Amino acid sequence: MLKSLLKPIFALCIVWPVMRLWMGLRIHQHHNLPKQGPAIIVANHNSHMDVFALMSLYSPLQQRHIHPAAAADYFLSNKWMAWFALNILNIIPVTRQNSGQGNPLQGCEEALRKNKILILFPEGSRGEPGKMQPLKSGLWYLSAAMPDVPIIPVWLQGTEQIMAKGNRIPLPLFIDVNIGRPMYYHPDKEQFKAKLLNNLLALRPLYKKRDSND
C-alpha cells in the first residue's frame, strides 16, 4: 500500500510545486492531452527536467498510470538510483543495447495493454539544447505492435536552459509545454519517423504566442 502512494506523494510535494511554481510551467493546447490510456506521449529531450515536466501534466492521483520509458543502463546503474527510478518515477526500463535476446519494449507493450500512459523520448537520449537528434526506431516497433494506440507529440521549451546535460542545479526559468494532435502507426518506418519529426518541429513556433495558454 505504501509503495503505491510513493509516486503520488512525490508528485504532490515535489513535482507539482517545483514545476508549476518554481519553474512556471505553462501548458498550451491542453485539450490534446489524453485523459486516460492507453496512450504514448513523445517529446524532444534536452534535460533531466523533461520527464518531470511531462509528469506534471497529470494530477498526483493519476501518477500511478504514468510510466516513463527509460534507459536501463543509466537508471539501474546503482541500487539507489534504481530504487528511485522504479518506485518513485515508476519507469519502465528499456535496454538500449539489445543483443537480439527478447523484446526490449515488452514492458512498454504490457503497460499499454493495461491502459497506462507511456512517456517516451524518441531521440533515445538527451541531445544538444534546442536541437533534435535523429529519431530512433523503437517507437515505430512499439507502434507496430500496438497500432491503435495514439501517439501524442509534445514540444518542451525552456527545460534545455534549466537542467541540460552537464548542469546539476535547476534554475527558475519558464517552461512551455505545447501538446500536439495524436498520430498513429504507419507501416513505412521512415515515413512514420519523418511525420513524427515534422509534427514535433511544427509545435515550436507556437511558443511565440506566450499568452495562448488554454
Characterise this structure.
By secondary structure, this protein is an alpha/beta fold. 35% of the residues lie in helices and 15% in strands. The protein has one domain (2-207): Glycerol-3-phosphate (1)-acyltransferase (3-Layer(aba) Sandwich), CATH 3.40.1130. The chain has 8 helices and 7 strands; from the N terminus they run αββαβααβαβαβαβα. A 7-stranded mixed beta sheet has the order 1-7-6-2-5-3-4, with helices on both faces. Mean pLDDT is 84; it is low at 207-214.
Blueprint of the fold:
Blueprint: H1 2-22, E1 26-28, E2 39-43, H2 49-55, E3 66-71, H3 72-75, H4 79-87, E4 92-94, H5 106-113, E5 117-120, H6 138-145, E6 151-157, H7 159-162, E7 176-179, H8 189-201
Pathway: Lipid metabolism
Protein name: Acyltransferase
Keywords: Acyltransferase, Transferase
Primary descriptors:
214 residues, Glycerol-3-phosphate (1)-acyltransferase, 35% helix, 15% strand, Plipid/glycerol_acylTrfase, transferase
Number of domains: 1
Q: Average pLDDT across residues?
A: 84
- Second-tier CATH architecture: 3-Layer(aba) Sandwich
Would you tell me the structural class of the helices and strands? Answer: alpha/beta
**The biggest beta sheet, please?**
7 strands, mixed
Classify the beta-strand content into a percent band: 5-15%
SSE topology string:
HEEHEHHEHEHEHEH
CATH class category label: Alpha Beta
Shape assignment: globular
Number of strands: 7
Task: Flag low-confidence runs.
Answer: 207-214
Q: For the terminal residues, how far apart are their CA atoms?
A: 36 Å
CATH topology: Glycerol-3-phosphate (1)-acyltransferase
The CATH homologous superfamily name equals Glycerol-3-phosphate (1)-acyltransferase
Q: How many H/I helical runs?
A: 8
With strands numbered from the N-terminus, the spatial order across the biggest sheet is: 1-7-6-2-5-3-4
- Give the helix proportion (percent range): 25-40%
Radius of gyration: 16 Å
Keywords: Acyltransferase, Transferase
Pathway: Lipid metabolism
InterPro entries: Plipid/glycerol_acylTrfase (IPR002123)
Organism: Snodgrassella alvi
